[in-house]
């Protein structure tokens, strides 16, 4: 009877939550970067484009605008998609194509180098490019474009064919048709692109007069509209009311006035509609930029739309201390879009975490109250708060999962968050052990793990190190995994129920760019246990230094 009831519930949940995002997910790093845009737990991408006028990190030249450069990069990556063959699209092949005249400018390089820091074993460069555009446009006052992940990076350059301003309208219409967009959609995409940024005299000397280059405008940028740092319809209002300053529309060189030819391709009907209705412009840009970002090779299956999780663990750590107890650390993030969420004061929010033992049993005493992180956090999509976990668990009873009970205000009924039913999984069978883990002067890393020795046979103890390597022919890097076996050293000095395992490895050729994590896994008593997504900082202590 009990078994029947459980499986019946299981079916119900599977149906109701078929599309739910359950933690942990391959897209956790992207979801973090999407959700938190400033303060504690900052995803880091929005910092590159905030404010909207910000010039790119690494090349802080006045007149350059990272938000515009990211949007142009995404378009140039997609522009050569062939809708007949289903090849190309947003696949980061742009990294192999930066020396092509059609991709002129140092912006492509600067952007790709910035993006490398957000690649992980499950966040491709092309997913990061898509996310960068969505965050940049939102931060510039534009629409909320839905985000899907799962893009796969190309390992070689794609075909030539990004439209250039000196080409005629027939050629541009054909290029957009090849990409899968009709004339109305071409006009819309160009208007949505050319509401940010402008044309640079250093790269387009036949379009922009060299007199535009001054000490305060070293690249000689001429903006497309009077609000280059606002994602608004001024590109359309100025075109229709005769005050356009877009050098690709009203420039002295008729040959390169591609925007004029494109905007007028339907007798100005689309641009007139955008000029008359600012919200129509936002809505159409959202629909078409979403389609542009989701133009991917036909073999790629994109994920469901990723939206901020209401409750999510962040950088959890579980280690054995010298007294043989398990120390649970890290954070819980709480997100909401309601007025109450916005008005909440983290220090007054009740938040507690309750865990189940290793064998799955609950125990009323296995609960801890969380403390609000004093530094605040921001999100482009709502309100977000972080809470610190600081709990000691008995090693013997261990942990298999936890739930979070919380409310935005002390007077509210608590919400019980159980990660879609099964709780947030966290295991104490395989642990990363920071004490004794270190990097030697040759750069070799010695890493330690602890594994329960009382739960059956232990095998396949493996250390996986995820890091970035350069790709021949590309500016952008690629994340690879180096896997080494770990060997048993002996029983842990801190607890007789754990054995210590170790491995030493050299990183080999690598690049400093990028995000590094490592996973430790083992089969124990016939079941696989993983301590995932540990941060590289845990490996960087110098060997021999006192800790
Ligand atoms: C026929 C189609 C197009 C042509 C010929 C074209 C041409 C150009 C040119 C010549 C520039 C100046 C680049 C520089 O000086 O750095 C530019 C900038 C830009 N384009 Fe386009 N473009 C087209 C379509 C699009 C589309 C569809 C988008 C996006 C949806 C887009 C987004 C941008 C952005 C954001 C900039 C500003 C870059 C910056 O300020 O650094 N363009 N475009
Ligand atoms: C797209 O692919 C088709 C089929 O292979 C080919 O005929 C066509 O020329 C391609 N388009 C472009 C612009 O290369
Ligand atoms: C971009 O980087 C690539 C590879 O490092 C280099 O070959 C190319 O010249 C760079 N382009 C620009 C415009 O800096
Ligand atoms: C382009 O496609 C859209 C959506 O299907 C349609 O509304 C529009 O009329 C089309 N434009 C042209 C010029 O075919
Ligand atoms: C206009 O642009 C075209 C294409 O870049 C170029 O060949 C031509 O010399 C330019 N004309 C002038 C007057 O600058
Ligand atoms: C044209 O549109 C722009 C942007 O909306 C506005 O600032 C400007 O005043 C308008 N000019 C005329 C002549 O209507
Ligand atoms: C489209 O608008 C431009 C700029 O306002 C104008 O010069 C042109 O004559 C218009 N074309 C048509 C067909 O109305
Ligand atoms: C619950 O945990 C406490 C303290 O860890 C322990 O003493 C007690 O035996 C546990 N109760 C059950 C039913 O396991
Ligand atoms: C340690 O580093 C050296 C030099 O980089 C390398 O040759 C050696 O193979 C590394 N040792 C191990 C165990 O990885």
UniProtKB/TrEMBL annotation:
<dbReference type="GO" id="GO:0000302">
    <property type="term" value="P:response to reactive oxygen species"/>
</dbReference>
<dbReference type="Pfam" id="PF00141">
    <property type="entry name" value="peroxidase"/>
</dbReference>
<dbReference type="GO" id="GO:0020037">
    <property type="term" value="F:heme binding"/>
</dbReference>
<dbReference type="GO" id="GO:0004601">
    <property type="term" value="F:peroxidase activity"/>
</dbReference>
<feature type="domain" description="Plant heme peroxidase family profile">
    <location>
        <begin position="122"/>
        <end position="333"/>
    </location>
</feature>
<dbReference type="GO" id="GO:0034599">
    <property type="term" value="P:cellular response to oxidative stress"/>
</dbReference>
<keyword id="KW-0575">Peroxidase</keyword>
<keyword id="KW-0479">Metal-binding</keyword>
<keyword id="KW-0560">Oxidoreductase</keyword>
<dbReference type="InterPro" id="IPR044831">
    <property type="entry name" value="Ccp1-like"/>
</dbReference>
<dbReference type="InterPro" id="IPR010255">
    <property type="entry name" value="Haem_peroxidase_sf"/>
</dbReference>
<protein>
    <recommendedName>
        <fullName>Peroxidase</fullName>
        <ecNumber>1.11.1.-</ecNumber>
    </recommendedName>
</protein>
<dbReference type="GO" id="GO:0042744">
    <property type="term" value="P:hydrogen peroxide catabolic process"/>
</dbReference>
<comment type="function">
    <text>Destroys radicals which are normally produced within the cells and which are toxic to biological systems.</text>
</comment>
<dbReference type="InterPro" id="IPR002016">
    <property type="entry name" value="Haem_peroxidase"/>
</dbReference>
<keyword id="KW-0732">Signal</keyword>
<keyword id="KW-0349">Heme</keyword>
<dbReference type="GO" id="GO:0046872">
    <property type="term" value="F:metal ion binding"/>
</dbReference>
<dbReference type="InterPro" id="IPR002207">
    <property type="entry name" value="Peroxidase_I"/>
</dbReference>
<keyword id="KW-0408">Iron</keyword>
<feature type="signal peptide">
    <location>
        <begin position="1"/>
        <end position="20"/>
    </location>
</feature>
<comment type="similarity">
    <text>Belongs to the peroxidase family. Cytochrome c peroxidase subfamily.</text>
</comment>
């Amino acid at each position: 009877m009990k078994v029947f009831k459980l499986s019946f519930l299981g079916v119900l949940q599977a149906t109701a939550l078929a599309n739910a995002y359950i933690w942990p997910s391959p897209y956790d790093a992207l979801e973090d970067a999407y959700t938190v845009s400033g303060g504690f737990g900052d995803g880091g991408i929005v910092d590159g484009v905030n404010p909207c006028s910000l010039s790119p990190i690494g090349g802080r030249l006045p007149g350059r605008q990272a938000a515009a450069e990211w949007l142009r990069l995404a378009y140039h990556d997609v522009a050569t998609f062939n809708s007949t063959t289903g090849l190309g699209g947003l696949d980061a092949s742009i990294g192999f194509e930066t020396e092509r005249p059609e991709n002129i400018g140092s912006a492509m390089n600067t952007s790709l180098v910035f993006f490398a820091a957000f690649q992980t074993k499950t966040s491709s460069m092309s997913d990061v490019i898509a996310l960068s555009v969505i965050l940049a446009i939102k931060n510039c006052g534009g629409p909320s474009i839905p985000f899907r992940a799962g893009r796969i990076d190309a390992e070689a350059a794609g075909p030539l064919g990004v439209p250039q301003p000196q080409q005629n309208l027939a050629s541009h219409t054909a290029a957009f048709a090849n990409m899968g967009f009709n004339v109305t959609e071409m006009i819309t995409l160009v208007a949505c692109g050319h509401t940010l940024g402008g044309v640079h005299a250093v790269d387009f000397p036949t379009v922009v007069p060299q007199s535009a280059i001054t000490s305060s405008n070293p690249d000689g940028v001429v903006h497309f509209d009077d609000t280059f740092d606002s994602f608004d319809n001024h590109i359309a209002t100025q075109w229709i009311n005769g005050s356009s300053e877009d050098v690709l529309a009203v420039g002295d060189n008729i040959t390169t006035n591609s925007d004029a030819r494109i905007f007028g391709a339907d007798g100005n009907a689309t641009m007139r509609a955008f000029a008359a209705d600012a919200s129509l412009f936002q809505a159409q840009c959202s629909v078409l930029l979403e389609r542009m970002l989701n133009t991917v090779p036909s073999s790629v299956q994109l994920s469901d739309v990723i939206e901020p999780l209401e409750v999510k663990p962040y950088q959890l750590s579980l280690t054995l201390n010298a007294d043989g107890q398990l120390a649970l650390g890290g954070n819980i993030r709480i997100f909401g879009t309601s007025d109450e969420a916005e008005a909440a004061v983290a220090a007054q929010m009740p938040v507690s975490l309750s865990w189940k033992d290793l064998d799955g049993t609950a125990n009323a005493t296995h609960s801890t109250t969380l403390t609000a992180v004093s530094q605040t956090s921001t999100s482009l999509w709502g309100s977000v708060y972080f809470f610190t976990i600081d709990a000691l668990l008995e090693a013997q009873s261990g942990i298999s999962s936890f739930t979070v009970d919380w409310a935005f205000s002390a007077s509210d009924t608590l919400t019980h968050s159980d990660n879609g039913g099964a709780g947030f999984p966290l295991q104490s069978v395989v642990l990363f052990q920071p004490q004794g883990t270190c990097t030697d002067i040759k750069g070799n890393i010695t890493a330690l793990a602890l594994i329960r020795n009382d739960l059956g046979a232990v095998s396949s103890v493996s250390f996986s190190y995820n890091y970035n390597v350069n790709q021949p022919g590309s500016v952008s890097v690629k994340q690879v995994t180096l896997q080494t076996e770990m060997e048993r050293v002996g029983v842990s000095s801190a607890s007789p129920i754990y054995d210590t395992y170790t491995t030493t490895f050299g990183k080999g050729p690598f690049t400093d760019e990028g995000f590094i994590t490592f996973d430790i896994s083992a089969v124990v008593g016939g079941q696989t246990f993983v301590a995932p997504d540990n941060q590289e900082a845990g490996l960087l202590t110098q060997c021999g230094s006192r800790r």
